[in-house]
Amino acid sequence: MNEQDIVHEVLGMENLAEGKMKGRLVVFLLGQTGMSLSRLESLKYRPIKSSPNYPDVIPSQWSITSFKSVILGQETGIHVKAYQPDIIVFEASVLIEDLLSDSVLDLKRELVTEGQKMLNQYNCNMDFCEEYSVYCVSEYKGDPEVFVTTFGDKIVSHLKNERLPLDKEELNSTLSYHLKYARDDMAIVDWDGAFLFDPNGLFEENIELFQTANLQLLRYRTLDKKLDERLSATLGFQRGRPGSLLRSGKVRDSLLEIMQIRTESILETEQVEYPIKLIGDWYSAKLYNLMSKKFHLDTWKGNIDKKLDTIEDIYSMAAENFAISSKNRAEFLLLGGWFILLAGWSILLVVEILTR
């Protein structure tokens, strides 16, 4: 059977002629809120593939609300969820007859707009918002690599939200970030989106894993911003009035704050990433590692660690300088005391001599 016959079997004559790919589009956004997210219902997804169950490894999602809406004439299921303590997740899902249609790009943009409105309702910081799109293809037969061979240019264009033709090198580079578990499934991962192929339509576990990776990226971005602000504050602190006791209190408070930031960084990021990576060569760990590389999570973590080290070094040196300054002031006061004492004894001696 040649490649064209395989394509006919997978897509059908009608869909092949029209260049269609039926499936489901899932768009989600994550934002950080200052609102209380207590008393929410926890969500648990059952593992799909034969890989270890990791309910206690990745953060639990908590349900807020679900409803149906019509967006650009498409019935859309919307689910608002949360990660404790302060992350809102907007997830929109819609069935589409042709995932590769240019109109899908317009629909994605509208879904993102709806997600931004929802995050605004929960007072999320829109300067730090992660958005991602997942194209879920099911109800086909055969190896999904046929899809990639036939529609690779359109797949990449939709992943990158581009309508213009892309260079072959860019196409090959994007399509190289893929993972296969079974003979008839595939995951193609990019920065802004992914294509998932599963003939049985079982996508929830992978979508949750994509959301976890975006959660990590959002946390790294917000933490990086916090450290940039701390560095700016440090420069202002260094220009302050030397020898001030208030300044020494700021050094102590800042050191405590940096210790707290580093602790939060470990608790909120490494407790998720390392257990997933340590699962081994299972599908979930491989997929997360692929996303981690595409999102440059290790680079973000390395930059954050460097900034934390830099700030700690600055404040540690400042604390040492204050310790030395305090010691010098104590010695000066001691010498001054001895000088006053000697002067007093000298005056008493002179007075005694004069009164004789």
Question: Care to describe what's here?
Answer:
By secondary structure, this protein is of the alpha+beta class. It folds into two domains: 3-207, no CATH class; 211-340. It is 55% helix and 20% strand. Helix 4 crosses helix 5 and helix 6 runs parallel beside helix 8 (283-295). The model is unreliable at 4-8, 10-17, 50-55 and 241-246 (pLDDT under 50).
Descriptors for this entry?
single chain, 356 residues, alpha+beta, 2 domains, nine-stranded mixed sheet, 55% helix, elongated
Rg from Cα = 30 Å
Distance between the termini: 131 Å
Largest sheet: 9 strands, mixed
SS-derived structural category: alpha+beta
Query: Total number of β-strand segments?
Result: 9
List the helices and strands and how they pair.
Layout (H helix, E strand, L loop, with lengths): L2 H9 L1 H6 L4 E11 L7 E3 L17 E11 L2 E10 L3 E10 L6 H19 L2 E14 L7 H15 L8 H8 L2 E2 L6 E4 L3 E5 L6 H35 L6 H33 L5 H13 L1 H59 L1
Parallel strand pairs: 6-9
Antiparallel strand pairs: 1-5, 1-6, 2-3, 3-4, 4-5, 7-8, 8-9
